[in-house]
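Complex 243.
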Amino acid sequence: MERLYYDIDLEKVPQHLAIIMDGNGRWAKSKMMPRTYGHKKGVETIRKIVEESKRLGVKYLTLYAFSTENWKRPKEEVDALMNLLVSYLKKELAELDKNGVRILTIGDISALPKVCINELEKSKEKTKDNKDLTLSLALNYGGRADILNTVKLIAKNVKDEQILIEDINEEMISKYLTTNESVDPDLVIRTSGEQRLSNFLLWEVAYSEFYFTDAHWPEFDEKELQKAIYSYQNRDRRFGAIK
Ligand code: IPE
Ligand code: IPE
Ligand code: MG
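Predicted structure with magnesium ion bound:
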């Protein structure tokens, strides 16, 4: 395969890759530019990484785009992020569709501006039959909020006598989470040096591998992605067992 910077085994590429895209603001600051410039550049990285993920054979790609905590940011920045989401979808939808990418969201998108919801619904509908790569955008997503919502749904079903308490199991919980369309992540990448989850996929990462890089999201690229996958492939996933 062309453009392999590392000795990656294409048979053992993570099936589900999840990325905490961090460092847009710090990258922009280092260039003496406004934070929104960093977000704009970050969208270009998304384009590159979606394409490269598909090329390498990743089946599920989840991108943390906006957390339940990100509402705490200044309104101008939140607005800029929402506008970028709309322009990304408008600009990329045809190409994503052509490339066999299925677009999904995780999190509670009902709180997003109407124009975002419309664009997301349109994108999901148009790409719903695509099979090559499932791209999940985490929007107004929080791991705790997703678990809380699941607890409420299950409690209601118990109350309505739809299910028995004895029947509640891990698979059921996974099914009620908004991440229910994908498998648990094999590899979680966080850019920009921070080594924390920031409320991302709390239930789902039980046995994920983690990879942290100092590269800011706008400077993360195909080579950095391959490096992360190469690192992942050289780990021993034991899942609690012994060899
Ligand atoms: C990631 O970059 C994008 C979002 C969280 C939406 P940041 O905006 O968090 O950039 P830093 O961490 O402040 O540098
Ligand atoms: C996590 O990044 C959320 C996203 C990447 C969307 P943050 O920049 O919001 O996380 P903290 O505040 O540094 O933990
Ligand atoms: Mg950040």
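The domain at 16-142+183-233 is CATH 3.40.1180.10 (Undecaprenyl pyrophosphate synthetase).
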